[in-house]
């Protein structure tokens, strides 16, 4: 191998991890599933894609060129269009296989009349949230993630909603006292998708000043690092958690054999099936 070839090999890019979602009415779901299965197979991508009449939600990983082609094909679909892609990088593939699934919802909520493609609560950019926190502005930071996710890390002073599953969120909100409905609430989750439904539900319940952190914790880490955040951020792949630099932590090794939610960490086959059930 020449010196130049050796250098190029050493500089080969790591695995690119991407996550995105889009609330947009989709039709011909079976045909879309088969087309995406063929595309991801050809590109040697792994991860999970969820399709439903309300949109698409995916997290997958692969080589740079393969990921770029996948995103280009998806965004060329007129029913999908532009996507807000969140990226991170790993030295190895964090997914064991590729799943393309049809679901009733791309994030299970079970409440009729919530349609983020038509209306959602206002989004607060990551840098603006950091500025508010730097200034000490009085806001209620509401963590809408599941308890086992919150246990690994959250924003300083954040209040967990206290649920084991996101579908329990409406009941938890309904139990909040009326005198809290005047507070300025900034809710957040991993990548933003849960807040797209949680925000409108809180507004429906009478909360008057509700914001959602745009892009979730992962976008905040990308733009602001770990400022005002304590601990790690749980992610639904073999990394288990990432830090403020979007680098995998030692959580997979540290928590091996322990229980997170409804499954232990970290047998790959069981974890893949568990992630699909959570979506």
From TrEMBL:
GO terms for biological process: tRNA modification. It catalyses: uridine(34) in tRNA + AH2 + O2 = 5-hydroxyuridine(34) in tRNA + A + H2O. InterPro entries: Rhodanese-like_dom (IPR001763), Rhodanese-like_dom_sf (IPR036873), TrhO (IPR020936), TRHO_N (IPR040503). Coiled coil: none annotated. It comes from the Bacteria. Residues 135-229 form the Rhodanese domain. Its EC number is 1.14.-.-. Catalyzes oxygen-dependent 5-hydroxyuridine (ho5U) modification at position 34 in tRNAs. HAMAP family: TrhO. This is tRNA uridine(34) hydroxylase. It comes from Botrimarina mediterranea. The gene is moeZ_3.
């Amino acid at each position: 191998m020449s010196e130049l070839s050796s250098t190029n090999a050493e500089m080969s890019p790591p695995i690119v991890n991407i996550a995105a979602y889009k609330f947009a009415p989709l039709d011909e779901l079976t045909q879309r599933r088969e087309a995406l299965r063929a595309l991801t197979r050809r590109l040697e991508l792994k991860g999970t894609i969820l399709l439903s009449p309300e949109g698409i939600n995916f997290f997958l990983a692969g080589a740079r060129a393969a990921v770029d082609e996948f995103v280009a094909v998806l965004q060329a679909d007129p029913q999908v269009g532009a996507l807000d892609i969140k990226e991170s990088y790993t030295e190895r593939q964090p997914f064991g296989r590729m799943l393309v699934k049809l679901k009733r919802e791309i994030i299970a909520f079970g409440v009729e009349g919530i349609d983020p493609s038509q209306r959602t609560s206002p989004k607060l950019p990551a840098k603006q949230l950091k500025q508010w926190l730097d200034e000490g502005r009085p806001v209620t930071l509401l963590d809408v993630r599941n308890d086992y996710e919150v246990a690994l890390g959250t924003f300083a002073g954040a209040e967990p909603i206290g649920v084991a599953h996101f579908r329990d969120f409406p009941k938890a909100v309904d139990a909040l006292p009326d005198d809290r409905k005047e507070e300025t609430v900034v809710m957040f989750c991993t990548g933003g998708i849960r807040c797209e439904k949680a925000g409108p539900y809180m507004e429906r319940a009478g909360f008057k000043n509700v914001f959602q952190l745009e892009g979730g914790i992962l976008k905040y880490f990308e733009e602001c690092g770990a400022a005002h955040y304590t601990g790690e951020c749980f992610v639904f792949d073999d990394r288990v958690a990432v830090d403020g630099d979007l680098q995998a932590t030692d959580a997979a090794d540290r928590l091996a054999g322990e229980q997170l939610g409804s499954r232990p960490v970290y047998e790959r086959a069981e974890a893949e099936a568990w992630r699909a059930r959570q979506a």
